[in-house]
Amino acid sequence: MIGKMIITKAQWNEYKGNSKENIKATINGVEMFVPIDEANIHYAEIKRQVDAGELTIEDAD
Amino acid sequence: MSRARTFADLATASEEGSLASPNMIQNGDMAVSQRATSLTSQTGTFYCVDRFKIIESADAVFTVAQSSTSPEGFNNSLKIDTTTADSSLSSTQYTSIVQNQEGLNLQHLNWGTSNAKPLTVSFHVRSNVTGTYCLLMVAKDATVKYQSQTYTIDSANTWEKKVLTYIGETTTAIPDDNSNSLWIEFCLGSGTGYTSGGATGQAWSSDGTKYFGGQGVNIMASTDNEFLLTGVQMEVGRVATPFKYESFGDNLARCQRYYSKVQYSNWSGRVQSSNAYYIHDGFRQTMRAAPSASILSQSQSSFPTDRNFGDMTVNGVGTQCTASGNADGAYWYTGIALDADL
């Protein structure tokens, strides 16, 4: 089984002037900075949930 | 076992390549536990020792630890202790221990050809709960297929070594990349939705009712229950050779491809309020993928508690901090966890 990933918040994160450099997300209770890399399982799950309409990525602060 | 049998097995192992094959399982002796050595009140999906993911989809709660209870030849095991029981699993509830494997490490298996090589998994296991357990192998590429096989814990609270052989997969090649292509999964209990079809044995199947086929016990049924595992080895061929020990350093390095820590990322100097300051840390090992970064610990002077991460690649991570005042001798340091596991 793949195992369930509980994502309670996702927000674009600005870094060095790039407003969508990565995603700051709370995953299984831990705040993580997730790179835009489909080989990263956190990003893959964020993308899956966004595509399924289950999650919205908020704009950067 | 007779000496003749031993020599025959060695000859077979040599012919099939397992004598020269490394243990494909990382941290099979449970010696590396970078995240924590003990975790209480665990539910959902989580890790304790490196590379062994625990998936709990039932209503039970566990304490999980890198235990010093181990069979001869080992110093550690992965111990799962039920602290809140779930004795009546619904159809699709289960708990399992998984190790995923990336395709880059599997190319020598020749899967997707008529010469697909079999794999043998050996391990040491101990529990107070005797009975039948399922260990399955999953091939993830194209259609997800699996072989569910069973083993029996015969004696309570006694270390037992088990060996299971899985046939190769002849129809679908494993991509030569860093994606999850194969995993082994130890079932600790499952609802009937994954068991009612029975075990597949040495045959590939996509029938969901056979996923944990043959699993007869439920570790979650009582707070008296525990399950310990170590000495996990997966090798090419049909013969289980003795556990291939590696140095702690080599073991740690293999694990750091999937999870690593920077202790500590630090910056110090003169700062001007509202200016951003950056540092970039290289990793000891090239990670499997660009990792997710999270804060382990931090301390600062003339900087806020916020940290910002970016430039995550397989080789390094950047940290940004914006000064909160004008000062000489300002500093920050940050411990960073880096997760590129499968």
Core attributes:
heterodimer; A: 61 residues; alpha+beta; 3-stranded antiparallel β-sheet; 1 helix; 18% helix; 41% strand; B: 342 residues; mainly beta; 6-stranded antiparallel β-sheet; 2 helices; 18 strands; 43% strand; globular
Structure, described:
The complex is a heterodimer of chains A (61) and B (342). Chain A is an alpha+beta fold and 61 residues long. Chain A is 18% helix and 41% strand. Chain A has one helix and three strands. Chain A has a three-stranded antiparallel β-sheet with strand order 1-2-3, covered by helices on one side. The longest helix of chain A has 11 residues, at 41-51. By secondary structure, chain B is mainly β. Chain B has helices at residues 3-16, 248-255, and strands at residues 38-42, 44-47, 53-56, 61-67, 77-84, 94-102, 119-127, 131-139, 145-153, 160-166, 180-190, 226-236, 259-271, 276-282, 292-301, 308-310, 316-322, 327-339. In chain B, 48% of the residues are buried. The mean pLDDT of chain B is 93. The A-B interface holds A 1, 3-6, 13-16, 18, 21-22, 27-28, 30-35, 37, 39-43 and B 44-46, 53, 55, 57, 94, 96, 98, 177-180, 185, 211, 278, 288-295, 308-313, 318, 320, 339-342.
